[in-house]
Amino acid sequence: QLQLQESGPGLIKPSETLSLTCSVSDDSFNSGIYYWGWIRQSPGKGLEWIGTLYYNGRTFYNPSLNSRATISVDTSRNHFSLRLNSVTAADTAVYYCARPKWFGDFPGLTAFDVWGQGAMVTVSS
Amino acid sequence: EIVLTQSPGTLSLSPGERAALSCRASESVYDNFLAWYQQKPGQAPRLLIHGASRRAPGVPDRFSGSGSGTDFTLTINRVEPEDFAVYYCQQYGSHPGTFGQGTKVEIK
Question: Fewer CB atoms inside 10 Å of the end CB: C or N, chain B?
Answer without folding.
Answer: C
